[in-house]
Each structure stands twice: as C-alpha cells, then as structure tokens.
Amino acid sequence: MAQKDNGKKQILLRISNSLWNDLAKWAEDDFRSINGQIEYLLTECVRQRKKPGKSREE
C-alpha cells in the first residue's frame, strides 16, 4: 500500500500504560486525539527550548 507524503514523519513510540491513560485524559480535555496531543506537547517543548535568553543546563 502506497503511503501519501503529507509532510509528516511516522514514528513508533512505546510508552507505559499509565502515561497513555494520562495523555488520553488530557487529550480528551483539550478536544484532541492522543496523537494530536503528543504532537502539540512536543511542539510546545521545542518552542520553549528555542526561546531567546533561555539558559540550558547541559
């Protein structure tokens, strides 16, 4: 089956049942799918990391 290129990459993500349940509840509260919630959270984390003047402890 050919996959349509929509500009997004697919990944396999393994998470615990408890984290899945927490994400599912949060996604429902925000009217998102679990996939949409994960993408939203990752986007926000990357955006925060890119903020100017933010120090990094590495």
Task: Give a brief outline of the structure.
The chain is 50% helix and 0% strand. It is an all-alpha fold and 58 residues long.
Topology:
Blueprint: H1 17-29, H2 34-49
Helix pairs in contact: 1-2
Description of the structure:
- The chain is mainly α and 58 residues long.
- It has a domain of 33 residues.
- It has 2 helices and no strands.
- Helix 1 packs across helix 2.
- The longest helix has 16 residues.
- The chain is extended, with a radius of gyration of 15 Å.
- 0% of the residues are buried.
Search tags:
DNA-binding; mainly alpha; Arc_rbn_hlx_hlx; extended; Ribbon_hlx_hlx; DNA binding; 0% strand; 50% helix; 58 residues
Reported for the largest beta sheet, the result is:
none
Gap between N and C termini:
43 Å
User: What portion of the residues fall into strands of 2 or more residues?
Assistant: under 5%
Total number of helical segments?
Answer: 2
Strand elements, count: 0
Order of helices and strands: HH
**Alpha-beta classification:** mainly alpha
Detail the poorly predicted runs. none
